[in-house]
Specification:
186 residues; alpha+beta; five-stranded antiparallel β-sheet; two-stranded antiparallel ribbon; 15% helix
Length: 186
């Protein structure tokens, strides 16, 4: 039986698909990540390297439902550390524009797909008004007129037994070492 070898373009597609987590796509810096009105129709070249030095920008799809908001975010990565933010900001220098840490940046360990939340049943995935909270908010205000709650003090523990080689393994080991030292010293 003859085996066919996969052609290099087919291998390239397989590796490129495995290089990015699902729902995260690279975008062109300073166009797609700055404003929704400045979208580029260019396709960024495939890069098989692992993300490093926060040098590339990725679009985090709203399908992932990151942070329970169902919005689209952008991200930069260096190894396993990801910075997720709503829009990019750049600082202009003599050498050109360099990326800055945008306001509202959330730092994640591991890719953002790990932090996606399931949508509630029947929720419209495109609706920004979908409430995905699981618990009701807590009232953490302190009422100065209310006395503090009383806490019961547990009864005192009985006094510990005297340590011996029969009830304490640590004491047994120490005592055996002491006796061996006494026997071996002249």
């Amino acid at each position: 039986m003859l085996r066919r070898r996969a052609s290099p373009p087919a291998l390239l597609v397989v590796f490129a698909a495995a290089a990015q987590p699902p729902g995260i796509t690279p975008v062109i810096q300073r166009y797609d990540d700055v404003s929704p009105l400045s979208r580029s129709f260019a396709v960024p070249p495939a890069d098989l390297r692992a993300p490093s030095n926060f040098e590339r920008v990725y679009r985090v799809s709203s399908d992932i439902n990151l942070f329970g908001h169902g919005k689209e975010y952008f991200a930069r990565a260096s190894g396993g550390l990801w910075a997720v933010f709503p829009t990019s900001t750049y600082m202009v220098t003599r050498a050109g524009a360099i990326p800055d840490i945008p306001p509202g940046t959330v730092w994640l360990i591991g890719d953002p797909t790990l932090y996606g939340r399931p949508r509630p049943a029947g929720a419209d995935p495109r609706s920004a008004a979908t409430d995905t909270r699981v618990v009701a908010p807590l009232d953490l205000r302190i009422d100065p007129t209310r006395p503090p709650p009383r806490t019961e003090v547990p009864p005192a523990a009985p006094p510990p037994e005297e340590r011996s080689i029969w009830n304490s393994e640590t004491y047994r080991q120490i005592r055996v070492c002491q006796l061996l030292d006494q026997t071996l010293t002249p």
